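Quick question, first post here. What does this chain look like in 3D?
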Amino acid sequence: MADYFPLKEKTRLEYSYESTEFKGLARVFLDFLKVRKNKQGENADVKMTFILRDTCVSEYKISKTKRWVVTADGLVIGGRKEFPRPPKEGIEWIESPDICRIVSMNEKVKVKAGKFSKCMKIVSRLSGGDSGKSVRYYAPNIGYILENYTAEDKDCWVELVNIGKIPEDEKKK
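> Answer (accepted):
Ran it through. Tokens below.
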């Protein structure tokens, strides 16, 4: 089965990020610093670098258990339950007040980082649909590649632009 949120040590994912919360196009790097496996699953230490006019750096954890992929922070809304494991079309869960559903496991998605097939599509109805929605995509063996978030308080667009390794000179920081 495909891994829709691989935790690969020393990997860097680069995103472009637009939001009505700020002017301009931000660059965001997610660096997977350390990955540890245990009886419950895997945990990763991640460094997020947000670059717009200034640079903001934060660190957080991602955990993958047999039941869930959970991020303690993130680009659009902070931490969330990304999706249950194993992911299957039609699965629905509540992350109060939002209702999330895997609506497809076979999407074709084109982003700046490339073309991907057999992507998982998740639609989250914010506050049950009263406050907007989020549509996000995960590519097999790559992870989070695209999100369109439309809410009462902000609109955001996140797109994967590059997959690479953390540069050697930045690993020591």
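The longest helix spans residues 168-171.
The chain has a mean pLDDT of 95.
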